[in-house]
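Same chain as my last thread, 376 residues:
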Amino acid sequence: MLTPHYCRNRLDQTVETAGAQDLDLVILSDYRNIYYLTGHLRETELPQLLVVDTRTATTWLITDTSPTQGAADVVSIYESYSVEWPVSFAAITAKAAQALDLVLEGIVPPVKRIALEKSRLSATFSDVIARRCPSAEQMDATAMLARLRRAKRPDEIDTIRACISSIEAGYAAARRVIRPGATELDVFKEVHGEIVRHAGYNLKFEGDFACGTRAIKEGGSPLAKALQPGDLYILDIYPSFHGYHGDLCRTFAVSQPTDLQRQAWEVVCGALQLAEQLIRPGVRARDIWSRLREHIDTFECARGSFGHHAGHGIGIESQEPPWIIPGSDHVFEVGDVIALEPGCYSPALQGGVRLERDYVVHENGLQNLSSFPLEL
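reply #2:
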């Protein structure tokens, strides 16, 4: 999990950055960013708010439960259940809005500029802010937070590593259970169970469990579909471990792989190795995508099939900057944690091959965070 020490560092950096933009208040409403800055994680739909007064460097956390750890100066806990009133999301939001109203009432005026997460702020909270700070100019905090979150600190990388370790335990279980006649649901049950056992709690779990030719255009949830001899099974799993994501993909041969399938695997391995050699701070993400597409298209059987991203950043979201896509304007930076996932697909392969590793970008290259074998 995140540590109070680094959360305090991130809060201090936020105060400094917002102050330099002449922002008096920052009001956050995305639980992910609140966790990033305070260490208080609530992966629920219940409202969570963080108010930062840059003039006094004071922070207020508004939440429904007492934090076990946290870097906020003041914690305001609102009531999320009572036998005295009917519980509903609207009623709970009203309670959180009352807590926000009290915090803003105590903030010294004038408040001239406020940064908000506009895409994640409900009208209920917007009304409170407009009433308490009627003359304040409102800015969007999204870009500022994305910029601050880009370089990962040691506590973030440690949490991502722990998530990756759980995924690898799941892939070890997959290798044991994948065989002709087993269903996608059989594999899901074993993989999910092993990941939960390794993690030690019921972590948020997402991934692609489509096998064979279904994986060429589909992904997502498993079906009661039997694995066929000759199928290639792409498993792409990206759970959230204490708020942070790992993201690994492996391809498993349901039976003895064919020569063509081995050739596809070698091409995708080569693409992964090419990206590892090329990525350095300052390199353009779109150039990496182009080089990988060019490399994969040398494999005639699957020419033109690599039509998805070549990777992306990971952190408190499963996909975040930098985006390794054709139109990306991102360049790699020291401290980025990225997933690379080249792939190729064809009915002739009975599916496709996609391989994915996670890395930290350092000044002199990439550090691989995963160790599970790439073999079919």
